[in-house]
Design a protein that fits this description.
Family: Belongs to the glycosyl hydrolase 1 family.
Number of strands: 13
Distance between the termini: 22 Å
Bound molecules: 4-nitrophenyl beta-D-glucopyranoside
CATH superfamily: Glycosidases
InterPro entries: GH (IPR017853), GH_1_N_CS (IPR033132), Glyco_hydro_1 (IPR001360)
Radius of gyration: 22 Å
Strand content: 5-15%
GO molecular function: beta-glucosidase activity
Keywords: Glycoprotein, Glycosidase, Hydrolase, Signal
Largest sheet: 8 strands, parallel, barrel
Subunit structure: Homodimer.
CATH topology: TIM Barrel
Shape: globular
Length: 495
């Protein structure tokens, strides 16, 4: 949003629900998130098994900016107290972190449980609880045990059982103290981005087959892990489980592109949400139809989008206790013209749909190549979800801003303020039930292909310093104030 329209918009806001009312509803919770491979380091400590990210960065260091890797990262494995300390300093209500599957199960299977690996997360959970911070666990944030990859990884239907077994171990270890869970982080990245672009582990390119096999198996794996909790643990622990999908908001470039924009939403969000949250379950009908046709056109005998049996549809449908999603940025989409070439989905064009991406000039670019600032996108995304699937308790499980560093991060503060304002409008004007907001991220960390070059943290980390010293940015002070005041109305001289 341009500065000018932001002013106009704030004025409209002021008229409709009171100039001073930038406060969040009572009980609204603020958190921050990280992921195991991005912060922990200690990639081979004690009996930890190798993950696909360990293999990916070691096999060909050139895959990552400046040959960076996550071998040490923020050294959170050895400095867990420091992370708890900064989470407490911010006053977080909860901290969302992920478990490294191969730290707990070195072989990937439950035949061997690592005591040291399991204890690391006990220290983290207990340390957070001691400071009054609720632990919120992600079971899987992209670091599959390598032995499971060797057996086909997400392309093997048995992954659903392997994931169920892992989930049961984890609920048994931590379920007494952890009440908020998501199974998979952004399966659209695990499946679409990995198999189409090959720029993330495991680096296998199989855009037609791998992508959609993985999509189906991710849905089944999530469902099985959700059901294990629901049946075996919920009765005694009363926690809640969902999935953290990544949602890019698509807008039509012109009116003629309206139908295409909806197709794009179904392609990115729908393939990962419809099987779980819709009343009827299964794939979005428009995508099923399109992929059936595309498959025939490309000479396949069956659709590259594997069908769900009725039993599988029922297994997946309804496997949520709340609606979680990660959101960062938006896209405009238009029909491709004859002969135009395509960049790759999901960061670039939507070739499968014959769609080209365009970015309006007033969406300011952020430090990552895929990132443009459009605060209104998060509200539109929420409204679309409600319209598609109905009313839910929504939790934003990631939102944050990429920069190239610096402690005076006014741009990050502006980003958070504008996106949070849209969330307030969605709550107060649109009547949506949004209960949790998770900032990405607590501290600078290993930003996948961008290595340590792109920063998202409230705390700056000095990656040259063996101690990985953490320093609060201006945005850390700002977020702390927002949490304290439970309001966006926090301007003061310090900031
Ligand atoms: C998320 N996109 O990834 C991940 O959950 C984090 O691990 C990551 O560090 C963070 O966002 C920032 O990048 C994304 O296609 C994956 O727009 C894909 C996209 C955005 C974020």
């Amino acid at each position: 949003m341009s500065w000018c329209s932001a002013v106009v918009f704030s004025a409209v806001l002021a008229v409709s629900w009171g100039a001073e009312d930038l406060s969040f509803p009572p009980g609204f919770k603020f958190g921050a998130a990280t992921a195991a491979y991005q912060v922990e380091g200690a990639w081979n400590a004690s009996d930890k098994g190798e993950s696909i990210w360990d293999r990916f960065v070691h096999e060909d260091p050139g895959r990552i900016f400046n040959q960076n890797n996550g071998d040490i990262a923020c050294d959170s494995y050895n400095q867990v107290e420091k992370d708890i300390e900064i989470a407490a300093e911010l006053g977080l209500h909860y901290y969302r972190f992920s478990l490294a599957w191969s730290r707990i199960l070195p072989t990937g299977f439950p035949n061997q449980i690592s005591k040291e690996g399991a204890d690391y997360y006990n220290r983290l959970i207990d340390g957070l609880l001691a400071k009054g911070i609720e632990p919120f666990i992600t079971l899987y944030h992209w670091d599959l045990p390598q032995p499971l990859q060797d057996l086909g990884g997400w392309a093997n239907p048995l992954i659903a059982d392997w994931f169920e077994d892992y989930a049961r171990v984890v609920y048994t270890l931590y379920g007494d103290r952890v009440k908020l869970w998501v199974t998979l982080n952004e399966p659209v990245v695990t499946c679409d981005l990995c198999y189409i672009m090959g720029i993330f582990a495991p680096g296998i390119v199989s855009p037609d087959v791998g992508t959609y096999l993985c999509n189906k198996h991710a849905m089944l794996a999530h469902a099985k892990a959700w059901r294990v909790y629901d049946e075996e643990f919920k009765p005694k622990y009363h926690g809640r489980v969902s999935i953290a999908n990544h949602l890019l908001w698509f807008e039509p470039l012109t009116e003629a592109d309206t139908e295409l924009a909806d197709l794009a939403r179904q392609h990115l969000a729908g393939r990962y949400c419809h099987p779980i949250y819709s009343k009827e379950g299964g794939w979005p009908a428009s995508i099923e139809k399109l992929l059936e046709k595309n498959s025939r056109d490309r000479g396949y005998n069956r659709s590259i989008l594997p069908t769900f049996t009725q039993e599988e549809k029922e297994l997946v449908r309804g496997t949520y206790d709340f609606f979680a999603f990660n959101h960062y940025t938006s896209r405009k989409i238009r029909w491709a013209k004859e002969g135009e070439t395509f960049s790759q989905w999901p960061l670039g064009d939507a070739e499968e749909l014959n769609g080209k991406i365009e970015i309006p000039e007033h969406w300011t670019p952020a430090a990552a190549s895929w990132f443009f600032v459009n605060p209104d996108g998060i509200r539109q995304q929420l409204l679309w979800l409600k319209e598609q699937y109905g009313d839910f308790e929504f939790m934003i499980t990631e939102n944050g801003m990429a920069t190239f560093g610096g402690l005076e991060d006014h741009d990050r503060i502006n980003f958070y303020r504008e996106y949070l304002k849209q969330i307030l409008i969605a709550i107060k004007e649109d009547g949506l039930n949004i209960t949790h907001y998770t900032a990405w991220t607590l501290l600078d960390n290993f930003e996948w292909s961008d290595g340590y070059n792109v920063k998202f943290g409230f705390y700056e980390v000095d990656f040259e310093d063996p101690l990985r010293t953490r320093r609060p940015r201006l945005s850390a002070h700002w977020y702390k104030k927002v949490i304290q005041e439970h309001s966006l109305d926090v301007t003061n001289d310090e900031l």
